[in-house]
Design brief:
Blueprint lengths: L3 E5 L8 H13 L7 E4 L2 H4 L30 H11 L7 H17 L19 H24 L3 H18 L4 E6 L1 H11 L8 E5 L6 H4 L15 E5 L21 E5 L10 H5 L2 H11 L4
Parallel strand pairs: 1-2, 1-3, 3-4, 4-5, 5-6
Helix pairs in contact: 3-4, 4-5, 6-7
Organism: Streptomyces coeruleoprunus
InterPro entries: AB_hydrolase_fold
Protein name: Serine peptidase
Amino acid sequence: MRPRIVYVHGGGPKARRELLTSQWDKALFGHDMGEASQMAYWAPVRYGSPLPDPHPDPLEGLPGAVAEEGHPLLEDPAHFVSRTLADADGAAPLGGWLRDMTYLAEALALAEEPRPGPGEEPLPRSVPRPRPARTALFRLLVRQTFEDVGAYFFGGAGPAMRQVAEEALDEAAATGDGPVVVVGHGLGSVVAYEVLAAAPDRRVDLFVTLGSPLAVPAVQECLAGPRAVPSGTALWLNASDARDLVALDHTLRPEYAPPGRITDLLVGNGSENHHGAAAYLSSPLVREPVRRVLRRTG
């Protein structure tokens, strides 16, 4: 039996396909999976070239912006929302989600700012970055996610992005005869969901959504069909961190018919923006169900 796993990455420019697939494999399994895994690599639909090696992906929870006074990513949240809405052509219906993400980012950056311990106690060994750096990091995630989701639903990028996922799933079905697992992160979970929902005969043993916005009402209103578990999907696991700005709403179970078919899990995402794909993939609550399904022999 030859199991297959198909990854669908989230927003923003990414490392080249082979490197990104290897990074996800190692986070989820601890080693490269070779031909058993493949990445539905839709980044070229939106971005002209991959991130240079070994440039880190800023949306993985590493600083991606210069955190200085006056930097546009540190402006007042109200100004940030209005300016981003003005810049994002056609994405105004998602404005409520943008506003909520932006203000949560501000609150998280403030709440997680390092502070001296009481008395003479030393600071903990590991502390978050100072607030300016964290604010810039959160704002970058908010803006990039919002712009990519707007392009997907309203900017004409959706069909091409879905085609990439369809082709990856077709290849997995053609080259494997074992269990199939699909993992979608962030916007990738939306792309994967719409592809699976449009193909009722496509068999998937486990669908995993990580840091997904599929529970956000503004996103749900943009979906092509009614909210339902794809008929060919046997199991659906939805994992998110309560601090993940992209997920924002964390319960898919009551939103997608029939009730009770989805398992929602709150997991800890230790990346600095609480949305990093590698941090989700390395969570035991994500790794173990994937491994169990892929070990099935029939």
